[in-house]
Amino acid sequence: MSKVATRFAPSPTGALHIGGVRTALFNWLYSKNHNGKFFLRIEDTDKERSKDEYKNQIIQSLKWIGINYDGEEYIQSKKIEDHIRVANQLLKNGFAYKCYCSSEEIEEQKKRARQKKIPYIYNRKWRDKKESDISQNIEPVIRFKSKIDGKSILKDLVQGDVEIDNNTIEDFIILRNDGTPTYNLSASVDDHQMNMTHIIRGDDHKINTFKQMQIYQAMKWEMPSFAHIPLIHTIDGKKLSKRDKASTLDDYSKIGIMPDALRNYLLRLGWSFKDKEIFTLDESIKYFNLEGIGKSPSKLDISRIYSMNEHYIKNIDENDLFTQLAEYCKLFKNEIKSDKKDKIKKSLTFLKNKAKTLEDIFNNAQYILTDEVNFNQEDLKLIDVKAKKIISVFNENLNKVDVLSKETLEPIVNELIQSNDTNFKGVGQPLRVALTGSKFGPGIYDIIISLGKEEVKKRLANKKLS
After folding, report:
1. DSSP 8-state code for residue 248
2. Cα separations in angstroms, 317 against 278, 320, 349, 380
3. Alpha helix locations (H) across 206-317?
4. CA nearest to 431, candidates 407, 397, 402
């Protein structure tokens, strides 16, 4: 077998689905693990539904999660002439035939199958007929002459040996009556021409694989290896579809899930290596193998994604975290103003506390990002006469402090607790509302230090507090 080559072959008929991303990831990791090549093929032969915006979204999504393909993307629609040529070769060599059944005839056969509650299989009416039997002016389709006798065995690298009776595979169409190729023909020709060694895809493709194997055999091409990954299900155990919430990468980037965290989660979704949970990119490539893929469907668990993301937020370098936060804000919120960047950077240590997403950090940082304090009206009611006095005295005492730190601020707070016969919350809560607009948020010392002396004094003198 030649050097490992894999591909990911999405149709640009919608945003990239999370199941597709995992398929792309497994193909990419398998190739990288074997020092091979990974290619992106855009299967855009459905002209009605294929759109450039989806193609660009697929490319951007793969780039965002860190999956880089080799060379240019392979555009299927540019290869249609090659597909048609192979169909005609199969016809010429007796592996395919022209079928002149009308659409009404086919519909009647399907209706009968439904009535009998059996899967529809074309009745092979034109398999052995001569063209002289044509009685009406119908543009034929070209059907592949599937094997009728015996069994076929797929040596699946994930599922093991899968056996099927050949007579259950219908004589499938390879060229429609308008002369356009169908999926099974196009995919087979492309995979052969791209020198694919391993086809790794969802196990809903198993029946397609049996059809494609027959095309390979008829053309005397070298057969690639096949691996079928169990599908991803919802937490309720249903097959995940594009209509499900949080099914595309865009859904995750919008809520502030980081690419490394999502990639780590998808790697572990249906694959395992010992009892290891967290994988760097290099470790993912080093340890990935097909033997670690389970045979049962995996359940997409959003709580596990949040948990994984929280782990990455806590453990990655804060410069890297800030870069990702800034990019997130630019794309989905408001760009961080240049005069706020240093304050946010220095405050990340506490802004990331309990944050599960970049959006959480953004929300925690609102009091720094905004120049005007946006008061929660309910919380503003907490600023009673006693609270106003605490705020005023604290502001006066702040003049005596040169460098803001917990050590320099603590004596002021303790003095206010004693003189007002209250506790830490009694002093901290009014100050927090005054400085951030809400009684919820980071620790009061962290808030004061992050804002800086001048900004604190300005906010504590707000007329809304008097």
Report:
1. B
2. 16, 5, 11, 37
3. 206-219, 249-254, 259-268, 281-287, 302-315
4. 397
Number of H helices, E strands in the chain: 20, 12
Distance spanning both ends of the chain, measured CA to CA: 80
Taking alpha carbons only, the member of 1, 33, 8 closest to residue 288 is 33
Tokens at residue 182, please? 């169908």
Give the whole-angstrom CA distance, residue 66 versus residue 32.
13
Q: How far apart are CA 75 and CA 78, in angstroms?
A: 6
pTM for this prediction:
0.91
* Residues 140, 138: Cα–Cα separation, whole Å: 6
CB 44 within 8 A of CB 250: no
Report the SS3 class of residue 466: coil
β strands within 53-140, DSSP E: 74-75, 96-99
pLDDT tens column, 355-406? 999 999 999 999 999 999 989 899 888 999 999 999 999 999 999 999 999 9
Residue with tokens 């099927």, as numbered in its chain = 164
